[in-house]
Amino acid sequence: MDFSSKLLENAVYEMSQLPGIGKRTALRLVLHLLKQSDQRTENLATSLLDLKAKVRFCSNCHNISDTELCEICANPKRDASLVCVVEDIRDVMAIENTGQFRGMYHVLGGKISPMEGIGPQELTISSLISKVKKGEIKELIFALSSTMEGDTTNFYIYKQIEKEGISTSTIARGIAVGDELEYADEVTLGRSIINRIPFEGSLKSN
After folding, report:
1. How many percent of the chain have pLDDT more than 90?
2. Given 44, 50, 138, 196, which residue has the most CB atoms within 10 angstroms?
3. Residue 132 class from Cβ within 10 Å (0-12 exposed, 13-18 middle, 19+ buried)?
């Protein structure tokens, strides 16, 4: 791809580093930005800089937040004894959109994947286990994607807390095997939360 401007080429290159953005799409986006007013472009740049500089992670659940505690953890109407374990913020958003869950979350930040060099120590599993051992949690809901990595992560956490005497469940398999949670429709995902099954039962069925 030949560029008449080095500035344009640099902007397209940086835009194409975003996931799912090829060079042609990056070029279209950059040319679109060139047509916008200076104020609109400055607003976009400022919002991205603020996001990078000021965003933080909730000290309780590791969700993305503007404050020390995210809005969910700070809400006294949420059930703190019921915790849904998810991979990342996109899964929190997907479940919240169903309107069917009133408990808390714990965001792991990924899944155990030896092939990618991701072990338990790279995730927030230790803080989850610490919360369980404090005795405030009555049930953990495993809501990771139904992939080999997701099942491995579920099983690892289960073995770490097996003797703590809390209930463990997993979302019902209305979610197709291999599917990512964020792509499930809201009705299916909502039903899978409501109709969750004991985690021990899911082990026997695999």
Report:
1. 73
2. 196
3. buried
pLDDT tens column, 50-62: 999 999 999 999 9
Residue 133 sits at φ, ψ, to 5 deg, of -70, -15
Q: Is 2 helix (H, G, I), strand (E, B) or coil?
A: coil
Beta-carbon contacts of residue 90 (< 8 Å; ≥ 6 apart): 181, 182
The Cα 69–Cα 59 span in angstroms is: 6
Question: Nearest CA to 71 among 80, 63, 83?
Answer: 63
- Distance from C-alpha of 10 to C-alpha of 73, rounded to nearest angstrom: 41
Q: How many CB atoms lie within 10 A of CB 24?
A: 11
Choose among 91, 90, 88, 130: nearest CA to 108.
88
Number of neighbouring beta carbons within 10 Å of residue 153: 25
To the nearest 10 degrees (0 to 180), the angle between helices 186-194 and 89-98 is 90
* pLDDT of the residue at 203: 59
Q: How far is CA 115 from the centre of its chain?
A: 20
Q: Judging by DSSP bridges, how do beta strands 64-65 and 56-57 pair with one another?
A: antiparallel
CA R_g for the chain: 21
> What is the per-residue pLDDT across 64-81, written as a single tens digit (0 to 9) for each?
999 999 999 999 999 999
Report pLDDT digits (tens) over 145-201: 878 899 899 999 999 999 998 999 988 655 444 455 555 556 566 656 666 767 765
Tokens read off for 154: 């579920």
Residue located via tokens 């991205």: 48
